[in-house]
Amino acid sequence: MPRAATTPPYGVVSARWVREKGRFRLDVGLPPNTTAQVRVPTAGRTQVTGDGAVFQGIRGDRAT
């Protein structure tokens, strides 16, 4: 599973992702009391669902 992480002043920000069986899974870790805007590829889909995620909309080829 590919992953990335960085440590800004407020704590660790991390992401891990995997693509298998036609599905894309993204796990994001954030420091406490922070927010983030996450954009994921849509592969041309007009609807994207997330397990525990709420998407505000799709712009171009990314769901936000």
Automatic annotation (TrEMBL):
Residues in Alpha-L-rhamnosidase C-terminal domain copies: 5-52
InterPro entries documented for this protein: Bac_rhamnosid_C
Domain of life: Bacteria
One Pfam family it belongs to: Bac_rhamnosid_C
Name of this chain's protein: Alpha-L-rhamnosidase C-terminal domain-containing protein
Organism annotation: Streptomyces collinus
